[in-house]
TrEMBL record, chain A:
Keyword entries, A-Z: Cytoplasm, Cytoskeleton, Microtubule, Phosphoprotein
Quaternary structure and interacting proteins, as annotated: Interacts with PCM1. Interacts with TTLL1, TPGS1, TPGS2 and LRRC49; the interactions link CSTPP1 to the complex TPGC. Binds to alpha-tubulin.
Domain of life: Eukaryota
Main localization category: cytoplasm
Organism: Vicugna pacos
Ranges that cross the membrane: none
Subcellular compartments: Cytoplasm, Cytoskeleton, Microtubule organizing center, Centrosome, Centriolar satellite
Keyword Cytoplasm among UniProt keywords: yes
Protein name: Centriolar satellite-associated tubulin polyglutamylase complex regulator 1
UniProtKB/TrEMBL annotation, chain B:
Bias type Polar residues, positions: 407-420
UniProt entry keywords in alphabetical sequence: Coiled coil, Leucine-rich repeat, Repeat
InterPro entries named among the record's database cross-references: Cilia_flagella_integrity (IPR050576), Leu-rich_rpt (IPR001611), Leu-rich_rpt_4 (IPR025875), Leu-rich_rpt_typical-subtyp (IPR003591), LRR_dom_sf (IPR032675)
Coiled coil found in the keyword field: yes
SUPFAM superfamilies referenced in this protein's UniProt entry, alphabetically: L domain-like
The protein's name in its UniProt record: Leucine-rich repeat-containing protein 49 isoform X5
Originating gene: LRRC49
Lineage: Eukaryota, Metazoa, Chordata, Craniata, Vertebrata
Record-linked PANTHER family: LEUCINE-RICH REPEAT-CONTAINING PROTEIN 49 (PTHR45973:SF8), PROTEIN PHOSPHATASE 1 REGULATORY SUBUNIT SDS22-RELATED (PTHR45973)
Region (Disordered): 1-21, 397-420, 619-640
Stretches assigned to coiled coil: 343-376
Species the sequence originates in: Vicugna pacos
UniProt xrefs under Pfam families: LRR_4 (PF12799), LRR_9 (PF14580)
Length: 322, 724
């Protein structure tokens, strides 16, 4: 927290910019919400837990959407939570529809808006056939871009539309910009014959946008890399390229690389334990139902023993990955 | 006594009339042939040829009140040779045809070329003055019969006559037998005003006609012809016997005017319905065997006939029905014989009992179908309302999708289309009585509650109120299946605690048209005591289209050990799969959810349990919690799954509003705090900046002050003295 930037800003602005205020507000809010319970085990304890969970990224679980999207950290945490919880669905190889992914999202955030899911699906499906099936990884990376950079993408869409219709977006959006003066308007004929917009022109606009954008946006260098490979591109082409760019994924830091998407040994271990337990639990229950008495009791003991063992061998319940 | 010679034993129909001759009309009505019952068995099995030789010596007596006793006509035929049946016939035939033996009868060619002229010897004439038999003479036309004006009986059986001719002079004729000829039209009878018996069986007559003058006709036999309808008989008010067996009649009507008819034979036709029989005041015997009557309704006029005592229906489809006998007996109390068997008192009683039962059953079933229909209409009504509501909601959803968009987002057309089509095709046909009764029902109900055996069915959201009702312990205990139709799932969620209390044995839940759109909605079912079966109809529940829904249900409701989902048995593999897919979610929810949040997520009931869990966790995190968690599991659901709960959308919105309020307050509070803190910080920093200088200044002042030791001492001493 004691970065040199701190001195450049008044304290209050600094705290606000770093979203410290957001978390403080939320902490107090949570405290209010559960006043009685929390007062029983200590307010200091509560604040410790709260800020710990913020650090671990578990604070967004089952929270309302307005909170989940409030800070970049929350968004990244949510992305990671979504990946961790439903990685198994992808691993299983099921292709799901947009609505099913939406349902999964809603399991973590009950009021998650459909609109965002739809937009993410549009990136995967290139804006058509919205009821198509998508693979988990395709959806996840598209969703990451859409969710994390949602405000940025909205501005990009506006710029793209302006470029398409031949307007010079810089004169509209950034009147003070000097870079817009020596740029030539694209001729209408060219735009109508070819699909999309010219990449370099587009990049200039985006660079400009990144400079003054107060929300998070992808690193300009990476955007440049994406755009430098092609002459022209469409809006969804751009989004797809963004979502597939592993550098952006790394920069964002919420999800592993595409190749490692199905890897999460710690969770797999936990899952194995759960599966074994549920299997034993079920069979034991059946047995118990059939022949209550000594045998059922024995089995139960065995079951507990089984459970105690792996949990003792896994002493790291928290993984600090931030 | 007249005994018409037996000849037509091949046709039982022809002879039926005899059986019915009861004591009251013993003098008059036994007219034709033999009954099959009277033909010895060995003959009956033999057809035509053999039977033609049978002579059973029947007596025909015709007597009307108008005739004086001495005018009683007696015909006697072949009575003398009972042991050699047919001998006389044969004899006569030979005699007549070959003119070999004495030639009592001579057929002589007349002056007119086509007609033979019949003459009998005077001796013959004296012997059989009023009778003339011309059987089996291979006659193709009627011969001219001269000088026999007094003839009363004329027999032309078994010839080839095609037209009735040359008998118009026989005005005293009472009995005319043209059985087994080739007559195509009834004609030439207009002068025979005294004719009482006309036998035209086994001919080729297509139409009943030209009987206008035969007002005294007593017996009319038209069996074995090709008559298709009954007509031109309404003036025969003295007719007692009418035989129309083996014709082509398709129905019976136009019988009025036959005021004396006691016997009507209609066997072996194609009759499907009978009318007008109630207009026959004297009808006693009606033979309808071997026709095409299939319902009692088509012969219901029989029930109105007061005189009918003997009826046959055998050989009709109706006689195959289980209800046949008792229905007939019940409706025709006057009946003495049915299908030639005496109706006993016992049978009649039985019939009335059965009929009463039948009636009751019918009334009951009518009531049932009335109820059913009412139910159907109500459900239709509910469905309509639901459609409307859904349409509205989806419209709003479409509006909201742009901005807020967590409202139920479903396809309006799909939803409407499916419901409308599914419920309109049920409009079945109802009999008229029911429909009229239905019009009395005002079907404005917006919901329907039905308990049928072990199933409680609720239609429409209003039906949920029934859970507030006091159900009898027995009913409540019996209900194991609860079905919801046309109710918002969110509304159902709110009554689930009540359901749990009022119907503790409900094991099977069914949802149809309940707007289940999200997996998280299934979380709500976890609060029930137990669910062994779940059926979610795809109609109106889009969630069922998801691949994962079953696994999610299994995962979330794993503490119920579900046995069946949508009718499919749940296997061990399903359970493991469910666990594999969603286990991490539960793990994350339980082990990573910050405790403060877990509290707010868990319901009040769980809090206590959670608190003790928390205490143990405080000492030994990890190990103990899982153990603890497991020990509680058999009693209730997994704590690690409890975090996955569902709040109905409305409630959730309320909660969000509440949170918003709190947030506003928190924001202000924090803002104030932070501002205050930063101000203090600023002052502090300013002070920190000034302090070194201040300190130096202070020290310098002090040094300057104490530099002159003696003056400082003086000053100090003065201070002290001043104080004193």
């Amino acid at each position: 927290m004691l970065s040199p930037e701190r001195l450049a800003l008044p304290d209050y602005e600094y705290l606000a910019q770093r979203h410290v205020l957001t978390y403080m507000e939320d902490a107090v809010c949570q405290l209010l919400e559960n006043k009685e319970d929390i007062s029983q085990y200590g307010i200091a304890r509560f604040f410790t837990e709260y800020f710990n969970s913020v650090c671990q990224g578990t604070h967004i679980l089952f929270r309302e959407f307005s909170f989940i999207q409030a800070t970049p950290h929350n968004r990244a945490s949510f992305l990671r939570a979504f990946w961790r919880c439903f990685r198994t669905v992808g691993k299983n190889g099921d292709l799901l529809t947009m609505r099913e992914y939406h349902c999964l999202l809603q399991l973590l955030c009950p009021d998650f808006p459909l609109e965002l899911t739809q937009k993410a699906a549009r990136i995967v499906l290139m804006d058509d056939a919205m009821d198509c099936l998508m693979s988990f990884s395709d959806f996840l990376f598209a969703f990451q871009i859409q969710f994390y950079y949602s405000e940025f993408l909205e501005s990009v869409a506006a710029i793209y539309q302006d470029l398409l219709s031949g307007k010079n977006p810089n004169t509209v959006i950034v009147p003070t910009s000097s870079s817009g003066q020596h740029r030539q308007r694209p001729t209408l004929g060219e735009a109508s014959v070819l699909e999309g917009v010219e990449a370099s022109l587009f990049y200039q606009c985006l660079e400009n946008l990144c400079d003054r954008h107060k929300y998070s946006c992808p690193p300009p260098a990476l955007v440049k890399e994406v755009l430098s490979n092609v002459q022209r591109l469409t809006f969804y082409g751009f989004l797809v390229a963004l979502s597939k760019h592993h550098g952006i994924n790394q920069a964002l830091g919420a999800l592993p690389d595409k190749g490692d998407l199905m890897h999460d040994p710690a969770m797999d271990e936990a899952l194995e334990r759960l599966v074994v337990r549920s299997r034993l639990h079920r069979t034991s229950r059946q047995h118990r139902a059939k022949e209550p008495g000594a045998f059922g009791f024995q089995r139960r003991e065995k079951l507990e023993a089984l459970e105690r063992e792996p949990s003792a061998s896994a002493p790291t319940p928290y993984s600090y990955w931030w | 006594m007249v005994t018409p010679s037996g000849c037509s034993g091949d046709d039982p129909v022809r002879s039926l009339s005899l059986r019915g001759s009861g004591a009251s009309e013993a003098d008059a009505a036994g007219l034709l042939g033999r009954s099959p019952a009277m033909i010895p068995g060995k003959y009956r099995s033999v057809s035509g040829r053999a039977a033609s030789n049978v002579n059973c010596g029947l007596h025909l007596v015709i007597q009307t009140s108008s005739l004086p006793e001495k005018n009683k006509v007696e015909f006697k035929l072949s009575k003398e040779t009972p042991s050699f049946p047919g001998r006389l016939l044969q004899h006569d035939l030979e005699r007549n045809y070959s003119s070999r033996q004495g030639d009592h009868i001579n057929l002589v060619s007349s002056s007119m070329p086509s007609f033979p002229i019949l003459q009998r010897s005077s001796e013959e004439k004296i012997l059989y003055s009023d009778r003339l038999t011309l059987e089996r003479q291979k006659l193709t036309v009627c011969p001219v019969i001269d000088g026999e004006e007094h003839l009363r009986l004329l027999n032309f059986q078994h010839n080839f006559i095609t037209r009735i001719q040359n008998i118009s002079n026989l005005q005293r004729l009472i009995f005319l037998d043209l059985y087994d000829n080739q007559i195509e039209e009834i004609s030439g009878l207009s002068t025979l005003r005294s004719l009482r018996v006309l036998l035209l069986g086994k001919n080729r007559i297509k139409k009943i006609s030209n009987l206008e003058n035969l007002k005294n006709l007593d017996v009319l036999d038209l069996h074995g012809n090709q008559i298709t309808r009954i007509e031109n008989v309404n003036h025969l008010c003295d007719l007692r016997v009418l035989n129309l067996a083996r014709n082509l009649l398709s129905h019976v009507d136009n019988l009025n005017g036959l005021d004396s008819l006691t016997e009507l034979n209609l066997r072996h036709n194609q009759i499907t319905f009978v009318r007008d029989v109630d207009n026959l005041p004297c009808l006693q015997r009606l033979f309808l065997s071997f026709n095409n009557i299939s319902t009692f309704e088509s012969v219901c006029c029989l029930a109105d006939s007061a005189s009918l005592s003997d009826i046959t229906f055998d050989g009709n489809p109706i006689a195959q029905e289980s209800w046949y006998k008792h229905t007939v007996l019940q409706n025709m109390m006057q009946l003495r014989q049915l299908d030639m068997k005496r109706v006993t008192e016992e049978e009649r009683r039985m019939a009335s009992v059965v009929a009463k039962k039948e009636e009751e059953k019918k009334r009951e079933s009518q009531k049932q179908s009335l109820l059913k229909e009412k139910k159907r209409l109500t459900i239709n009504n509910v469905a309509r309302r639901w459609d409307l509501q859904q349409h509205r909601i989806s419209n709003i959803a479409a509006d909201q999708d742009g901005r807020d968009s967590d409202s139920p987002s479903q396809d309006p057309c799909q939803n409407d289309g499916s419901t409308v089509s599914a419920f309109q095709e049920e409009t079945g046909s109802l009999d008229s009585g029911l429909t009229s009764a239905l019009q009395g029902l005002s079907v404005t109900d917006t919901h329907l509650v039905e308990v049928d055996g072990d199933t409680l069915s609720l239609y429409g959201s209003g039906a949920l109120e029934c859970l507030d009702r006091n159900w009898s312990v027995q009913t409540a205990g019996m209900v194991t299946t609860v079905s919801f139709t046309f109710i918002e799932f969110d509304e159902i969620v709110q009554v689930l605690p009540k359901l749990k209390m009022k119907f503790p044995n409900s094991l099977h839940l069914k949802f149809k048209e309940t707007n289940l759109v999200m997996l998280q909605q299934f979380n709500a079912l976890a609060q029930l005591r137990r669910v062994h079966q779940l059926t979610v109809d795809p109609q109106g529940n889009p969630v069922v289209n998801f691949i994962l829904w079953k696994y999610y249900v299994l995962f979330r409701l794993s503490h119920f050990s579900m046995q069946k989902i949508n009718g499919t048995e749940v296997t061990q593999n399903d359970m493991i799969m469910a666990e594999r897919l969603f286990g991490i979610l539960a793990h994350v929810a339980s082990s990573e959810l910050p405790p403060y949040h877990l509290i707010s997520v868990l319901g009040d009931a769980r809090k206590k349990q959670f608190r003790c869990l928390l205490e143990t966790k405080g000492k030994k995190p990890g190990t103990v919690s899982e153990e603890n968690d497991d020990s509680k599991r058999p009693a209730g659901e997994n704590t690690n799954r409890a975090a996955l709960h569902y709040t109905a959308r409305d409630l959730y919105h309320e909660k969000l509003e509440e949170i918003k309020e709190k947030k506003k307050f928190c924001k202000m509070y924090i803002e104030d705090l932070v501002k205050e803190a930063t101000e203090i910080n600023m002052k502090n920093e300013a002070l920190q900046k000034l302090w070194p200088q201040m300190f130096i200044e202070l020290v310098r002042d002090a040094v300057i002050e104490v530099r002159n030791k003696s003056s400082y001492m003086k000053l100090c001493l003065r201070h002290i003295t001043d104080q004193k």
